[in-house]
Amino acid sequence: MKQCLVVDDSSVIRKVARRILEDMDFEITEAEDGQQALDECRKTMPDAILLDWNMPVMDGLEFLTSLRGEEGGEKPIVVFCTTENDVAHIARAIRAGANEYIMKPFDREIVEAKFQEVGLL
Amino acid sequence: MTPLEFDFLKKYLKDRSGLVLSNDKQYLVESRLLPVARAAKLDTLSALVCALQRGGNRTLENDVVEAMTTNESFFFRDKTPFEHFNDTMLPNLLEARTRTRSLRIWCAAASTGQEPYSLAICLKEAASKVAGWRVRILGTDLSNEVLEKARAGLYSQFEVQRGLPIQLLLKYFEQKGDIWQISPALRSMIEWRRLNLLESFSYLGEFDIIFCRNVLIYFDQATKTEILDRLARSIPDDGYLVLGAAETVVGLSDAFKPVPGRRGLFQRKQTEKASIPAPAPRLAAGLVGAR
């Protein structure tokens, strides 16, 4: 079973994402901010990460930059999932090593389509 | 809606668009036509049926047909047809057309434009191979409303997130608030026209590739056969027909054969004339004449 780390400071979003991803046969772990996510990755590197941008302590972009510098940190497929929906933000995320990008609000179909896009399904 | 009203709508739609509704589609009719009725200030479907029976309201008639025949569409739908386009159709045709350096592609059920634009993106991504070529895409649909949307190339945030990789969104779209617009370079590659597949389309000429996905399913057997036969006359022997993932020509038309290992892809069966080798002298004369 593939593992997906869901990183979002909103428990509602984490719950919705968990439900969608579990139906897609992922085993889910959760983190509330970038620092927690980094700690999780140091324990077990997941196959996929669904990543919010704006979070307290450490935001999504900082997390991604740190992750890609870690040993084995190039492995997880990272899909941003954020309300930041302008070209500048998207381009920054891609440059920092994001594989895909979901603009909120999202639904099941979008998550499925994007995960398919990056070969996770 | 009474059974009599449903029967009327069934016949009405069959006559005007070829759409065949089975009796279990009452739900579909209600969900699609109630908004049309309300927009026309009619309270119920019965009132809508009455208005259609009275006749004389062209706008309403068109709206009803459009509402029932419009498909949901997204970019790179089903993926494989576009892989076939990149890996099979385009390389083969680029080799076969080196003399004319010209390709014509027709999306026969273009809907809101995602399919023709996906093909335009494929062509842009293959820019080095098609440099100096004249490649034209024609997008047609029964519905003026969807063609207007296709022509404008404006898509919601939801629409651009289904099937379209984020890099391609950045590369080929311009952001206008929450709306994304296909770049002018891609829009200029496509010509849009209203067209009913039940009517003759021979005047459009020949196409190297015809995409006709998920539209034949709406027609009955005889109509499917008739349309396929006419499509065959618009495709050269080395051209391609692309049908939807769940569609086939088997049992419907002798004009096409499946391309082995390429689901949804079909080529014309060689016409008898072409399968008989041309006599050598004529061929030689032709070659001399060409020089």
Question: How would you explain this protein's 3D organization?
Answer:
The complex is a heterodimer of chains A (121) and B (291). Chain A is of the alpha/beta class and 121 residues long. Chain A has one domain (2-117): Response regulator (Rossmann fold). Chain A has a 5-stranded parallel sheet with strand order 2-1-3-4-5, with helices on both faces. The termini of chain A are close together. Chain A has 5 helices and 5 strands. Chain B has 291 residues and is of the alpha/beta class. Chain B folds into 2 domains: 3-69, Chemotaxis receptor methyltransferase CheR, N-terminal domain (Chemotaxis Receptor Methyltransferase Cher, domain 1, Orthogonal Bundle); 80-142 and 186-273, Vaccinia Virus protein VP39 (Rossmann fold, 3-Layer(aba) Sandwich). Helix content of chain B is 45%, strand content 15%. In chain B, the strands form 2 sheets. Chain B has a 7-stranded mixed sheet. Chain B has a 3-stranded antiparallel sheet with strand order 3-5-4. In chain B, helix 11 links the parallel strand 7 (209-211) and strand 8 (240-242). In chain B, 36% of the residues are buried.
